[in-house]
UniProtKB/TrEMBL annotation:
GO terms for cellular component: cytoplasm. It comes from Asticcacaulis excentricus (strain ATCC 15261 / DSM 4724 / KCTC 12464 / NCIMB 9791 / VKM B-1370 / CB 48). This is NUDIX hydrolase. Its cofactor is Mg(2+). GO terms for molecular function: metal ion binding; pyrophosphatase activity. CDD domains: NUDIX_DIPP2_like_Nudt4. The keyword Ribonucleoprotein does not apply. The lineage of its organism: Bacteria, Pseudomonadati, Pseudomonadota, Alphaproteobacteria, Caulobacterales. InterPro entries: DDP-like_NUDIX, NUDIX_hydrolase-like_dom_sf, NUDIX_hydrolase_dom. Keywords: Hydrolase, Magnesium, Metal-binding.
Amino acid sequence: MDDHAPPLPATQFGALPFRETRNGEVEFLLITSRGSGQWIIPKGKPIPNLTPPETAAREAFEEAGILGEVDPHPIGRFAYMKDQGQPNAQFIPAVEVFAMRVTQQLTLWPEMGQRSMVWLTPEQALHAIEIDALRKIVRRFAKTFAKGA
């Protein structure tokens, strides 16, 4: 083992929260990161005894106060710089993303008040998200949703 190489962070798991509007369009829920304040999706490190989709659902509950149905199959992966611009910034090599149909938005949750959140149309979400690979996941999901798949 190379003593000089830092350990690679574990893969994280995230939820792409969505809902269907009355006119059949899709909207996405984005939250701000606590470090950089950029618009992202709920995500976090693996949680012992939970599957990746269950971990994504738990993160969505803790960070955004939402409950819903998480697809067991990932819809994409992206990498990002955690706490970008901060002295302790860390590269996260992979966030596996699971689609989450939101069925309930709670009024109280663990990280309430620590982040902003907003429901956006696909176009608005694509404009707000800075991480290119996450934008691609959102764009692809929105196209698939529009086709009724």
